[in-house]
Automatic annotation (TrEMBL):
The keyword Protein transport appears for this protein: no
Kinase in keyword set: no
Name of the protein this chain belongs to: Glycosyl transferase family 1
InterPro entries: Glyco_trans_4-like_N (IPR028098)
Entry GO MF terms: glycosyltransferase activity
Pfam families noted in UniProt: Glyco_trans_1_4, Glyco_trans_4_4
Gene3D superfamilies recorded: Glycogen Phosphorylase B
Length: 388
């Protein structure tokens, strides 16, 4: 089948999209991804092609570089006030451009990644008379809102998700918690769970870990609602060096006191993997404030597991349940720096046993398990397509 994937990200750092595209290409499907502001020269891998639509809006031109800008307080307030309009304009322009790009291409199925691509995906699928796959990366109605309240827009988006997603031949999501909530909200059944797992490395290719942790690394988005204030507070009460690395929200960073933690910009995935392995512990943190946080199982968790590295994680929702079930590390109470400090100490003291437990759990928490689910979804689509 000719698969058209739509995603309002740069693709280059979207490991879920790339992994799914590569897996489908690996069994003979051709995959084209329409992304957002894809870096020039980016090569997605064998059997996969990519095209790019810009991310400008009526409030901001297309970014020319990645230079951070520290905003004044009035500018931060204006951003908070106008951010909904900017986001709406940016995603709307991307969707219009994605439609124009995709309308010129042949495809047998539309795979829309997340709500931001769902509307244009549903339109293209209906016009061509082909199946729609809705790949919900998170509970869209429960994600953090880092801008002024928009209750009318939130209700409209729930109605749109119900309508457009209800047309899908298949719905995929990242974890059982999100699947159950989508069923509760919209009555959708047979939702396939394809987690954000990583490839299963042979034991011989696992990185060498220190005999005792040399540090703890948080690798992910650096911004609000990720417990980073708690991480910073805990850094003052532990001798274990803490590193925070990832793409940053400069508005949020302008007022962030990192304590004794080191904050570093985003790194390529292989470099991040080396940082985590060299430290010996991974921090997997997010708040308990938003429904999506209670249902999500972050990429950071599966990244650590793929390296055989134990985690210190927030005891919240699905994340806490998975860490507890597979004994992947030590949990701490959300919002409690003293609890995080104690968890770090416990992880250091019990490190050899934690490493052993993570390595035993790896096969059940790695991509081959989830790849089989994704390929099964497409096998069903192919059967239905041939008999239609």
């Amino acid at each position: 089948m000719r698969v058209l994937m739509l995603v309002a990200t740069s693709v280059a750092t979207d490991t879920r999209v790339l992994r799914e595209a590569s897996s489908l290409a690996g069994i003979g499907h051709s995959v084209h991804i329409v992304g957002k502001s894809v870096p020039a020269g980016f090569a997605p891998g064998p059997g996969v092609t990519v095209s790019s639509v810009g991310s400008s809006s009526v409030f901001r031109r297309e970014a020319r570089d990645d230079s951070p800008t520290r905003l004044s307080w009035p500018a931060r307030f204006a951003r908070w006030l106008l951010l909904p309009q900017h986001r709406n304009s940016s995603f709307s322009r991307w969707a219009d451009g994605a439609y124009r790009d995709a309308a010129q291409r042949p495809f047998d199925v539309v795979h829309a990644h997340d709500f931001t691509a769902l509307g244009v995906g549903a339109r293209l699928a209906e016009e061509r008379g082909v199946p729609l796959v809705y790949d919900s990366h998170e509970l869209w109605s429960g994600v953090p809102r880092e801008y002024r309240p928009t209750p009318l827009q939130d209700r409209r988006e729930r109605r749109q998700e119900a309508e457009w997603g209800g047309r899908a031949a298949a719905v995929i999501t990242v974890g059982p918690g999100v699947a159950e909530e989508l069923t509760r909200q919209y009555g959708w059944t047979d939702i396939a769970v394809v987690r954000n797992t990583f490839p299963l490395r042979p034991d011989s290719e696992l990185p060498d870990l220190p005999a005792r942790p040399r540090g703890a690394v948080y690798a992910g988005r650096v911004g609000a609602y990720r417990e980073l204030e708690v991480v910073a507070a805990a850094s003052r009460d532990t001798d274990l060096p803490i590193t925070i690395v990832g793409p940053g929200d400069e508005t949020w960073l302008a007022t962030f006191d990192s304590g004794r933690a080191t904050v570093r910009p985003a790194l390529p995935l292989d470099d991040v993997s080396r940082e985590i392995a060299a430290a010996g512990l991974a921090l997997v943190t997010h708040s308990d404030k938003w429904p999506n946080h209670r249902l999500a199982m972050p990429n950071k968790l599966f990244h650590a597991v793929s390296l055989g590295v134990p985690v210190v994680a927030t005891d919240v929702g699905q994340l806490g349940a998975l860490v507890r079930e597979h004994r992947l590390g030590v949990l701490y109470r959300p919002g409690d720096a003293a609890s995080l400090t104690a968890a770090l100490r416990t992880a250091v003291d019990g490190y050899p046993a934690l490493v052993d437990q993570v390595r035993r759990a790896r096969p059940r928490l790695s991509w081959p398990e989830d790849e089989a689910v994704l390929r099964s979804v497409y096998a069903t689509l192919m059967t239905d397509h041939r008999t239609a």
